């Protein structure tokens, strides 16, 4: 009986070894844990067999663990500070946030105001043009106001007046939406983001009046470190339209430079062809030699004789090579982000001062209002 137990033990051990080293490496320890060995001396060793399904489950668990580890490694890969927030910025939509209920009410009010102003302005323009045409008093020197121009302008104004009300409403609504969005951007002056850079901490906001990102920092920061903070700002406050994507601008600049180069090459080829086709005719008049004048070749020879004896130092020659080298292609960007340093963190005012005119109406009162109020109280 003991011989059978020993044989069974040896067979089980061989199976485990075979599976460990040939079929499913690195899973031998787990399989051994699945085998329940009951030992009662060397003579009583019982090994319970294991199922194939258990092995498949173990393999799947290990593969999942490996995938999770690989994902964590990818996440741990260090990204350069200059490239920070680039992926999120590219994925972000350029459309502004939806309007709030308060903003929608404000849009309705402003739309009606714009329609009223637009109709008044249009009617005033028509009256002025008709008045000039009736009086027919035009100055010949004034090219802007002529009878022909006024007639053409009157036709355009009347045509514009005859457009349906929907056209005027849509135009006024667009203007109202622009103004509300503009008010949103004005409020960004009081919205800050904080970021830790390789050169210290930075606090940044956006000033619409200056069309610039303003920041506070105890150290001077290069442009390449300010760009990621600008990207973080627009990601935080959902205002992608205020930020210029420099990668796109560089691509556009390269395209313009290539097009300009092609145009210049085509122009040169055309000039060369024109020179070949239009050969200069020889002049009928003879050119007389100047015997008394010193020839340019002799001058060059004398100058060369003087200068050839002087040897230029090696360090100056090396610098001259750099100066005479062809300059690299410069890319001019039409747009770029502007950053203004407002000083150190000590200069930063977190709490904005509130005007007393908003709190107390007496501070907003004019002298005329004061007199009117005094008269009312007396009466």
Report the structural category.
Answer: alpha+beta
Count of alpha and pi helical runs: 13
Biggest sheet, spatial arrangement of strands: 3-4-5-6
Strand content: 5-15%
What's the order of the H and E elements? HHEEHHHHHEEEHHHHEHH
Report the mean per-residue pLDDT as an integer.
76
β-strand number? 6
Largest sheet: 4 strands, mixed
Uncertain residue segments:
36-50, 296-308
Gyration radius (Cα, Å) is 42 Å
The level of helicity is: 55-70%
What is the CA-CA span between the terminal residues? 127 Å
Shape call:
extended
Short descriptors:
379 residues; two-stranded antiparallel ribbon; 6 strands; 58% helix
Q: Can you characterise this structure?
A:
With 379 residues, the protein is an alpha+beta fold. Among the domains are: 2-77, no CATH class; 101-186, no CATH class; 188-247 and 336-347, no CATH class. Helices cover 58% and strands 8% of the residues. It has helices at 2-23, 28-34, 52-76, 86-91, 101-135, 147-161, 165-187, 223-237, 246-277, 296-307, 314-324, 356-359, 367-378; strands at residues 37-40, 44-47, 193-197, 200-207, 212-216, 339-341. The chain has a 4-stranded mixed beta sheet with strand order 3-4-5-6, covered by helices on one side. Strands 1-2 form a two-stranded antiparallel sheet. The longest helix is centred in the first third of the chain and has 35 residues, at 101-135.
């Amino acid at each position: 009986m003991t011989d059978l137990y020993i044989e069974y033990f040896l067979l089980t051990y061989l199976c485990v070894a075979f599976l460990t080293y040939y079929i499913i490496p690195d899973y031998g320890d787990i399989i051994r844990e699945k085998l329940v060995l009951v030992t009662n001396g060397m003579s009583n060793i019982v090994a319970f067999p294991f199922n194939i399904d258990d092995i498949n489950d173990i393999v799947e668990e290990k593969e999942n663990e490996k995938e999770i580890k690989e994902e964590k490694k990818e996440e741990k890969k260090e990204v350069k500070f200059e490239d920070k927030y680039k992926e999120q910025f590219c994925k972000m939509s350029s459309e502004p946030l939806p309007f709030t209920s308060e903003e929608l009410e404000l849009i309705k009010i402003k739309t009606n105001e714009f329609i009223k102003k637009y109709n008044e302005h249009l009617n005033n323009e028509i009256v002025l043009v008709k008045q000039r045409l009736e009086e027919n008093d035009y100055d010949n020197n004034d090219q802007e106001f002529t009878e022909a121009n006024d007639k053409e302008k009157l036709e355009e104004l009347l045509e514009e007046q005859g457009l349906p009300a929907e056209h005027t409403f849509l135009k006024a609504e667009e203007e109202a939406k622009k103004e509300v969005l503009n008010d949103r951007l004005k409020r960004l002056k009081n919205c800050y983001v904080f970021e830790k850079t390789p050169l210290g901490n930075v606090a940044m906001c956006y000033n619409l009046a200056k069309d610039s990102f303003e920041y506070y920092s105890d150290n001077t920061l290069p442009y390449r470190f300010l760009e990621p903070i600008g990207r973080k700002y627009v990601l935080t406050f959902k205002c992608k339209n205020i930020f210029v994507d420099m990668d796109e601008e560089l691509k556009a600049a390269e395209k313009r430079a290539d097009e300009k180069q092609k145009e210049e090459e085509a122009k040169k080829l055309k000039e060369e062809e024109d020179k070949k086709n239009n050969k200069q005719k020889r002049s009928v008049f003879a050119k007389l030699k100047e015997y008394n004048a010193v020839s340019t070749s002799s001058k060059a020879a004398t100058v060369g004789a003087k200068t050839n004896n002087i040897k230029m130092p090696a360090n100056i020659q090396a610098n001259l090579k750099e100066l005479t080298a062809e300059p690299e292609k410069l890319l001019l960007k039409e747009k770029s982000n502007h950053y203004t340093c407002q000083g150190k963190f000590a200069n930063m005012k977190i709490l904005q001062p509130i005007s007393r005119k908003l709190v107390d109406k007496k501070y907003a009162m004019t002298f005329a209002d004061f007199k009117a109020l005094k008269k009312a109280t007396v009466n």
